[in-house]
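Researcher: Following up on the earlier apo prediction. This time include the ligand. It's adenosine-5'-diphosphate, with the SMILES given after the sequence.
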Amino acid sequence: MSLVFQSLVLGVLMGGLYALLAAGLTLYFGVMRVVMIAHSAFLVLAAYLAWTFTVHTGLDPMLSLLVTVPLFFALGVAVQRLLVARLRPATLTMMSVLLTFAVALVVEGLLGFVFSGTHRRIPLSYSGARLELFGASVALVKLIAFGLAVVTLAGLHVLLKVTRFGQALRATMQHREAARLLGVDTDRVAGFGFGLGLATAAVGGTALALDSTIYPSLHWHWIGPLMAIIVVGGLGSVAGAAVAALVLGVGQNLLQLPLGTTWAQTFFYAALFLTLILRPQGFFGGRLAQRF
Amino acid sequence: MAADLLELVDVEAGYGRAALVLRGLTVRVPPASVVCLVGPNGAGKSTVLKVASGLLAPRGGRIVLDGRDVTGRGPQSLLAAGLSHVLQGHSVFPEMTVGENVLLGAYTVRDKVRVAERVDFVRTLFPVVGARWDALAGALSGGQQKQVEFARSLMVSPRVVLLDEPSMGLDPKATATVFEQITRMRDAGTAVLLVEQNARRALEIADQGCVLDLGRVHLSGPAPALLTNPRLGDLYLGHPPP
Ligand SMILES: Nc1ncnc2c1ncn2[C@@H]1O[C@H](COP(=O)(O)OP(=O)(O)O)[C@@H](O)[C@H]1O
Ligand SMILES: [Mg+2]
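Model: Understood. Below is the ligand-bound prediction.
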């Protein structure tokens, strides 16, 4: 029983991190109908930048966010402006898969070139620390990663719901032409949406690096589960992806008890196939995905 | 002759490299009147509205709004000049509330007092907007969504509104409401360029009518005269006389 509870708590923590890692994908798809294969490569890039930062300065890797978040925002705007916006609208979604696949290979290649293929881990004074949480024993780094996810997603939620830019972004996601007719500069908003997506990758990659060994090809391990999360959640729905991430994270952790870690991984793909068969518009997203 | 509020003169337009959709089309909308465009599917009616609102740049001809040449300007600029456009089909933001939708109509209006005044105005004109203010727009019926779209388009106090097949897919009761509201918009001083499949119904409330086919106006004049014109039936069925 306590083992199940332990798994449940770990599942929630992991689900929260998954939600953060997947948040960018919903934004790209939402604003541009783009499937961004390179998202997880940027997560790994952020992880390497955090690692470099800590190794060279001896400071906490979370401080690297002060640099990587604005940098990734600018990078996202650039990717949208210079690459994605040039694809022809008629074939955009399909071509974006190929384009961002290539971007992922370039990022991976550069990481291998600069950092070599050696596995790396951020040296942390608190990497072994554990906390008691409702009677479950939890690694401190997992709790910090979860905290980063909650703070970032809450910030994103407020930005989208309350600010004028957030209203314009959501309107652009939901009906681009109507948004243009109301005076929204949808091209600019789409660029910022991409920037915002990559900014979440900066935080996500850093959170990931706190508790993982990193290597240049690590992103291939992540892109599948993250895609599964946004499809189950309903493409383009930030809140839907967050709920799906929690459900899948908890499910995966509970299944690890009877099945072991390898088979528990397949839970994502089982959920993906079931969703595509039963409810292709996703389980937690709304009407948006039904339009496509 | 009274000056027209919106004029499209000899407009040519098309999509990408494909053949022209509009081939020298002229439509004029006088102030505070309803001008109705009818014609078969694919005649180019929606394209006329897209050119007029700046969504699609014309390849030839002129667009004049309130005496000023606005040819080639984008939607933002035309909106500021007093023109709004309600698209064909559903165009609410479905995952946002009715209130958020309506307030986005005032996206370009910075004066908070004015926005509040307009909210009051559209809530009076469209009671469903007030009644369902906090509901998700996508959860409303088709007719209610249309009213939200109307309300949203009126937030900038436009001088001319383009409506693209507002009764499409609506039941008879919702259709009656939509037509009644178009009349009320006109009575409140807003000019309306109305595209409708429901030609007889639309011409009954319109002041002027134009029959469009294959990117040209084939027949135009006062709506009552068009209604009794025997050529209307022929044209509307898509067989323009030689
Ligand atoms: N976005 C578009 N891209 C290419 N062709 C289009 C597009 N929209 C409309 N068309 C073409 O333009 C013509 C006129 O369309 P439209 O203006 O929508 O007609 P209507 O509103 O009268 O039914 C049609 O032949 C249609 O196929
Ligand atoms: Mg049309």
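Model: Strands of chain B lie at 6-14, 20-29, 34-38, 60-65, 68-69, 83-86, 160-164, 191-195, 208-213, 216-222.
Researcher: Noted. I'll compare it with the apo version next.
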